[in-house]
Amino acid sequence: MEIQEMIAAARIAQAEYEQHFGQDQVDEIIRAAAHVIYDNAEMLAKITVEETEMGVYEDKVAKNRNKSKGVWYNLRGKKSMGIIGIDDRTGLIEIAKPIGVVAGITPMTNPVVTPMSKIIFALKTKNAIIIAPHPKAKVCSSLAVKLIKEAIAPFGVPENLVQVIEEPSIEKTKSLMEQCDVVVATGGMPMVKSAYSSGKPSFGVGAGNVQVILDRNIDFQDAAEKVITGRSFDNGIICSGEQCFIFHKDDREDVIKAFTEHGAYFVKPEEKEQVVKTLFPEGKINRDLVGQSVAKIAAAAGITVPEKTRILAVEAAGPGREDLICKEKMFPVMAYLSYEYFDQAIKIAETNLKMEGNGHTAGIHSNNQANIIKAGTELSVSRLIVNAPCATTAGGSIQNGLPVTNTLGCGSWGNNSISENFTYKHLLNITRIAPISARIQVPTDEEIWAN
Predict the structure, then answer these.
(1) What residue numbers bound the domain in which 176 lies?
(2) Cβ 127 vs Cβ 207: under 8 Å
(3) Are 246 and 143 found together in one domain?
(4) What's the pTM value of the predicted model, to 2 decimals?
(5) Catalytic positions, please?
(6) pLDDT, tens digit, for every residue of 58-100?
(7) How far is the C-alpha of 177 from the C-alpha of 434, rounded, in Å?
(8) How far is CA 426 from the centre of its chain?
(9) Long-range contacts of 294-299 (CB under 8 A, 24+ apart)
(10) Do 59 and 153 belong together in one domain?
């Protein structure tokens, strides 16, 4: 079908779904949609790696399982239609209503769980959705959508409520964004900019460049394992993955020892130039190495690393534009810098963020609550992850209170419309019934202006 026909079919399906399905039925439907991805995690991971030629099979299996169960766990039992709130004091009543047809733009870095989460958010809120996958991930994305459609069909869900562009192109995606009711774009900055320029309400994401501060008096072994786990996950293609670790200069020996023992290879000064040139030829990211293994990157750079190396660690000459290695790196590679006092650590992190990744995510490993609050107060990020791998928890965790998603808003810092994790509530229009409450006495002007 042409995009115009898909939109028309989606509108008919959405009207039927809105009219005939209640909250309990909808929750059964989204459970089935999440569960089918969980059940097919291995098969989908295998096809994804084969098609995109990036990432790590085992990590994609974990991602498929954890995101599917996390999204369902977060959404189960939550009201998403009809009256969702009544204010006891004012009598204000909130009524949730669907937006209509959602355009779900999805990337090749997360081509299974991103369509899944967008579809589930749309189903939860009685919207229709059309997925526009990345052309280089059309097979695995289309398969994920097909599995979901088959899983929800027994509930009598209209056939065209969930659709996918099986032969995606820039032109088709642009047409979809112009004709839908709301755009949810996850992908590169050009795609996000296009979404915001579509003339329709849009939710996009910003670039990632996660800075991680290592405070004093912490367990460096524990921190090293968590940071490296985050950076190496899926060969570094997660936008919320750790990018640079920043430690006190007096802890240098302990930090390097801990990181080395957990699989980091510290690039020698004489190797650095070749490594950086390999990652950023002519100052631009080497797309041929995105999501590739440490062994492949090391071979491309002409250096030899131990067999079980999990990440490369490269010391930066300075923060921000002083060194290319401070940019976002979609590889299992990290920059590192040292500080003399905690305020300087924050300044280093902020300088790197201002260059790239502003508004996204930062991490801190600390036992000092005052320093944690200080970092959260002063860093221009929408999420500060504490004592955990950023890559696998910034997009939501059952344990940290962040909604499980694959679309991470970066606020005005990252030219985004939201500074939180995108979830089902962003696909609702809310009507507010506002009576005048006789129980609330209006104060006199003198009382209002009194000190």
Answers:
(1) 3-204+422-433
(2) no
(3) no
(4) 0.95
(5) 239
(6) 999 999 999 999 999 999 999 999 999 999 999 999 999 999 9
(7) 34
(8) 15
(9) 294/232, 294/265, 294/332, 297/331, 297/332, 297/333, 298/265
(10) yes
